[in-house]
Backbone:
């Protein structure tokens, strides 16, 4: 595979999942080369920074990740001639760490107590200690190049829906950095005036939901890695999110396992969160057309297929 294989993923209709007379479509981002949607994010970040003269081949690029982003960066970095260093909280799946290392990147695990915020802090300290023009922190959460990467995906969805002769009523998508949601939502809202967008947070760490409900936010450990970092990224654009809902991590894992056992799509647990919410929306009104995403691949979670991250079962996160 090469960099041209990123994107143009299929938009599939989930015939066996549709209910109440509606239609459900999902963009299969897990079919990207490294097995997740993050390939689009990092390809856009790196190529944009190269075009601006900010980075060049031979430099060391660093970022923090729970796994998918790290793998995407490692793969793209290797293809483009960069050294890659990934800071990630300890306790992530062995498949994710092995994948990153297989692409030639170096993994630095940070203490579990501070989760992703701790990985961010460690990354910043590393870059500061180097004080070098040869090291660059990509910081996917804090660059709008993340969100901009997803405009192309949004246009791909619009084109595919046109071929299906479908006008969507809902766009449903879990919120991590928010770049995927916001970039696609910008495009869909431009094409479909009446579309309603629904963002999903994990109930144990839902800062946007808490803010909208007037609740005090507390970040707690959970098992939907990639969501719920405990902070809102600049890529999460609140006015693009019509409604925010929360899901239980265990229920999302169960939905994912059930779906994988009955379908040919090998998807990960955050995809289960998307399916849970799509099912609830479809039950509210007959005949709704819903669009969602399949973010990443089931094989990245085989070592914790029960949905339990042992490292975090007794941890009170401080971030």
Residues:
């Amino acid at each position: 595979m090469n960099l041209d294989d990123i994107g143009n993923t299929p938009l599939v209709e989930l015939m066996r999942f549709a209910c109440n007379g509606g239609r459900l479509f999902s963009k299969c981002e897990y079919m990207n080369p490294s097995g997740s949607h993050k390939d689009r994010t990092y390809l856009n970040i790196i190529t944009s920074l190269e075009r601006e003269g900010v980075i060049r081949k031979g430099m060391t690029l660093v970022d923090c990740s729970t796994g998918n982003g790290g793998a995407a960066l490692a793969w793209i970095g290797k293809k483009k001639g960069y050294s890659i260093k990934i800071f990630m909280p300890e306790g992530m799946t062995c498949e994710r760490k092995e994948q990153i290392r297989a692409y030639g990147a170096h993994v630095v695990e940070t203490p579990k107590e501070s989760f992703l915020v701790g990985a961010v802090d460690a990354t910043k300290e590393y870059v500061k200690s180097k004080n070098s023009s040869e090291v660059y922190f990509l910081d996917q959460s804090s660059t709008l190049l993340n969100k901009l990467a997803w405009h192309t995906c949004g246009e791909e969805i619009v084109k595919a829906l046109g071929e299906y002769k479908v006008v969507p009523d809902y766009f449903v998508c879990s919120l991590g950095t928010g770049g995927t949601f916001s970039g696609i939502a910008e495009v869909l809202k431009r094409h479909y005036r009446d579309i309603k967008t629904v963002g999903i947070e994990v109930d144990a760490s839902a800062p946007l939901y808490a803010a909208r409900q007037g609740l005090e936010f507390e970040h707690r450990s959970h098992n939907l890695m990639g969501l719920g970092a405990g902070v809102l990224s600049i890529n999460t654009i609140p006015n693009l999110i019509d409604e925010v809902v929360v899901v239980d991590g265990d229920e999302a894992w169960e939905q994912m396992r059930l779906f994988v056992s009955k379908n040919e799509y090998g998807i990960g647990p955050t995809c289960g969160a998307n399916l849970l919410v799509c099912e609830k929306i479809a039950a509210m009104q007959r005949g709704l057309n819903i669009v969602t995403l399949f973010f990443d691949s089931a094989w990245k979670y085989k070592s914790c297929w029960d949905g339990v991250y042992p490292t975090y079962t007794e941890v009170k996160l401080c971030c």
